[in-house]
Amino acid sequence: MVGGKYKLIILHKLATHGIRRFNELRREFPNITQRTLTRQLRELESDGLINRQVYPEIPPKVEYSLSETGKSLYPIFLQIEKWGLEYMENNPK
């Protein structure tokens, strides 16, 4: 569910910054293609980790946010980050 180059980073951005529009996410990742970002967002939505809200406007407005399931992963992300920082501190290269 969180495999893929950008999924964890997308979830982290939504957890720390809240609701984001597509282009806001795109600016956060300058090296990602529109196709890749769209695919990653669709997979996260399909897995129930994010919500996609479409507003009937012209031009279309789409917002992404963490679902309750996605929010429940955030403490796990923090633990992984903590482990990684401790590992790097104890194993310098």
UniProtKB/TrEMBL annotation:
Pfam families: HxlR. Coiled coil: none annotated. Keywords: DNA-binding, Transcription, Transcription regulation. It comes from the Bacteria. Gene3D superfamilies: Winged helix-like DNA-binding domain superfamily/Winged helix DNA-binding domain. One of its GO terms (molecular function) is DNA binding. Residues 1-92 form the HTH hxlR-type domain. InterPro entries: HTH_HxlR (IPR002577), WH-like_DNA-bd_sf (IPR036388), WH_DNA-bd_sf (IPR036390). This is Winged helix-turn-helix transcriptional regulator. It comes from Cytobacillus dafuensis (Bacillus dafuensis). The lineage of its organism: Bacteria, Bacillati, Bacillota, Bacilli, Bacillales.
